[in-house]
Amino acid sequence: MSVMGNALTGDQASGMELALRLASRLDGSEVLGPGEASAPYTVAAHPPLAVVFPRSAEEVSAVVAFAREAKLPIIPWGSGTHQEMGPPLARPGIIVSLERMQTLLDLDIGNMTAEVQAGLPNKALQDHLAPHRVWFPVDPPDWDRSTIGGNIATNASGPSRLRYRTLRDHLMGLSVVLSTGELATFGGKTVKNVAGYDLRKLMIGSLGSLGIITSAIVRLWPLSETSATLAARLPNEETFAQFSRQLLGSYLLPNAFERMDVRAGADLARYLGWTVSSTDLVCLVSFGGFQAAVERQVREATEMLLAAGAASVEMLEAGREAEAWACWRRIEQSVARGAVGLLVGRASLPVSRVGEFGVLLRALGAQCDVAVASTAHAGNGVVSVYAVLESECTWSLANAAALAAGLRVGAERLGGFFLVEKAPDSLRSETTIWPRRSDYSLMRALKARFDPDGLLNPGRGVDGAIQDA
Amino acid sequence: MHAATEDPGRTARSPAQGRLLRELEAIVGKGNVLSRWRDLLAYSYDATGERRLPDAVVFPDSTEQVSAVMKLAFREGRPIIPRGAGTNLSGGTLPLRGGIVLALARLNRVLEVDTANLRVVVEPGVVNLDLQNVLAPLGYTFAPDPASQKASTLGGNVGEDAGGPHCLKYGVTTNHVLGMELVLADGQVVQVGGPVEDNPGFDLTGLVVGSEGTLAVTTKLSLRLTRLPEAYQTMLAVFETLEDAGQAVADIIAAGIVPGTLELMDKPILRAVEESVHVGFPTDAEAVLMIEVDGIRDDLAHQAERISALCQQNHVREVRLARTAAERDGMWTGRRGAFGSVARVRPAYRQQDGTVPRTRLVEMLKRVRQIVAERNLMVGNVAHAGDGNLHPLIMYDDADPDETARVEEAGKAILAECVRLGGTLTGEHGIGVEKRELMPLLFTEQSLQAMKWAKEAFDPAGRLNPDKIFPLGGSTQPAAEVTL
């Protein structure tokens, strides 16, 4: 048993006592009491009551059982990259960090499965897999930090979702500590499995509000024998729309099709030595597979780009391809440079309406006086919006809130929705986080059964600040 | 138990029953309610062959009618049993406690085909193949194509999370459902998921798919379309041993090839197929793999060569490439005809559905032979080898009660063995009635409890398709069996 803390103030004494009691339940796992060391685990301005670092599902069970007896909230923590996502946490609680649960439990190349503890970072898993010429085709931009458990809890995805789709297609098995402290296991090592309800699906995107994911069995896919990426600069929405329609309606099987406006694509344009104008759209289209098919697809996609009126097209391989994608991965950080904060939103639209949303975003950005950048998984209709907050003054925040409200209405008119994914705490309380839906009451009924005392990430899911349709 | 020759007084209705029928008729129209014994009999069974009589069968024509029927049933405390084409193989549509069968056959409209956005909106009564026939000329498909696709409905496919021979590469039904309109047990209408992706909150679509009509009734389905591939290359690889065929499967996957189809048929099946459809399958080989790769044309010759080489490495007797569309069709006719053809061997067959991790498939097939031989029965095996899903077909005489009992026993032993090898009780047919008592083999009490929480959240009164999926344990079944 070890408790690491700082010199106590009177206010922290009860927190310290809590940490000690918690530590006594665990055999040697580290527990942080309140203070400087636990401050980085602050969520929605709630400093943690304690931070605990279990090393096994059994220890997670013990912590949850303890919290349940003490009626204290439990906040699962992977690497902390998405704690701002969803409605804000309502109450402080015990942070259950999975940082000490990073073991690759099983790698079964014959079955193309890997079983991992939830705290393993995505990229660390990929590094284990690469020597075997396989990978896990869920590639969110922050995969070097974000964990597999966190990816599941937030339904994270990346450019490869175009070809490989999302987590719900690759999650084969799941172990979860329920609010009772008991461990439940669903699925296994088989692609087909229809025995009982598919509770794996329920956990994907549940933001830790139904249980704590402790390990997962994921499906692996062969790494492409060869790959190539086309980078293109399209002068306006019309040329983009023509190319998008032609590419997605063809036999070609792109791995990824990303669209960036000039602010989001600035780093990439600079790397490629392009001079861009404000209406330009920058695209990355990648292909993977066996040599002959990649060559033909690159050739045909290049023809499509030129026929649509692309101003620049470059074929990138090996190091240049990797660097282009590294630029894509840095977009959020690049856009945030020099800003006091970002409002990050996501629109999900019919694929054919992505261009119209781009037009709307430009117009609303100008109207609300907010600098905006956007990227899109153009073949999936999923757009990320970055609104740059240049100051913390109320005026700047009000403008961003107005932008979000406008985008919400606009996205719904286009047959989709817009939601706020990350924003400064002051803005999150003012901005409606999730769109109105008719199924929230059903979700709340589930939440009430799975977590009757409301201790799992209270407020961050369907029990939070959301509106019914 | 009712005798077949007489109507056991079902027409002598209680006043409550008469009132219920009148109210149902007011909702869906007089011609759309069945209540005569003979008519009810037609809805008392599914492909498993068991029979239980419902109180009434209704044919709603709209979401509003479904909702009104369910409100009525809710008020009256009657079970609701949603039904598509009744092709399911696990007893999922048996009206175990009587109640109202909600037959969705009239909800058979394709409401929207949007190829630009890769989606369709359909009603649940649309037959899978009918949708395929709408999509194919446009160059698209709905990827799930279960063997029952000529008859089974999309609502049924969703209810059972149906599979088929393309799942390794393309996934099962759940991977292709974007959202749906649901009617809940109390008649409330709710939209879950979306026509678009990444909806906030819990993935209720993913929960309802495969829930066997126990959580909600679907009235609209938003489905993902898949572009038809540019080209296919189909081939048959003939092996002298099961082990060689199994190793070839492993080597193909390890080489980074993901075939669209990777089907295994063993000797008894090859013989039965050849006797019935004459497609040129070898009848003296221990196992045949039917392999199909699809995608960009330029790739396929290369992939076929790699596959052939890997088969050679595993002592293949012969690799036949389909050179024409007709040759490809022949191979598929043989594979799709496997189930029907075994009916010629013995009067009846029982199809089992178990799944093991791919690497355990050959071991499992050998165990199946052993389990069946120990009980003096005949078996042929068809397997979706790429995803470890096996369908042993036990051939028997259903007029012989002793043999029938041995078939039941063998089926349970096979499933227990699948679980022991790290697999599952069902890959695509569902739990239904048939396998509910086996659930504790696969799930701990806690895991089953979590599933029950989901059931309670959707259907707290337990009105939807009762007594399915969850083990009843010692408790007796409430409705009398119908004997004919």
Describe the structure.
The complex is a heterodimer of chains A (469) and B (484). Chain A is of the alpha+beta class. Chain A folds into 4 domains: 2-97, 2-Layer Sandwich (Uridine Diphospho-n-acetylenolpyruvylglucosamine Reductase, domain 3), CATH 3.30.465; 104-222, 2-Layer Sandwich (Uridine Diphospho-n-acetylenolpyruvylglucosamine Reductase, domain 3), CATH 3.30.465; 226-329, Alpha-Beta Plaits (2-Layer Sandwich), CATH 3.30.70.2190; 337-434, Alpha-Beta Plaits, CATH 3.30.70. Chain A has helices spanning 13-25, 57-70, 122-129, 148-154, 161-164, 199-203, 237-248, 266-272, 291-308, 318-329, 331-336, 354-368, 394-413, 425-428, 440-450; strands spanning 2-4, 30-32, 50-52, 74-77, 94-97, 104-108, 113-117, 134-135, 171-177, 183-187, 212-219, 221-222, 226-234, 256-261, 281-289, 312-316, 341-348, 371-377, 382-389, 417-422. In chain A, the strands form 4 sheets. An 8-stranded antiparallel beta sheet of chain A has the order 16-13-15-14-18-19-17-20, with helices on both faces. In chain A, strands 1-2-3-5-4 form a 5-stranded mixed beta sheet, covered by helices on one side. A 5-stranded antiparallel beta sheet of chain A has the order 6-7-11-9-10. In chain A, helix 7 (237-248) runs antiparallel to helix 9 (291-308) and helix 7 (237-248) packs antiparallel against helix 12. The termini of chain A are far apart. Residues 4-8 of chain A have low confidence and may be disordered. Chain B is of the alpha+beta class. In chain B, 35% of the residues lie in helices and 20% in strands. The longest helix of chain B has 20 residues, at 401-420. Chain B is globular. The model of chain B is unreliable at 1-6 and 476-481 (pLDDT under 50). Chains A and B meet through strand 10, helix 6, strand 12, helix 9 and helix 15 of A and strand 9, helix 7, helix 8, helix 10 and helix 16 of B.
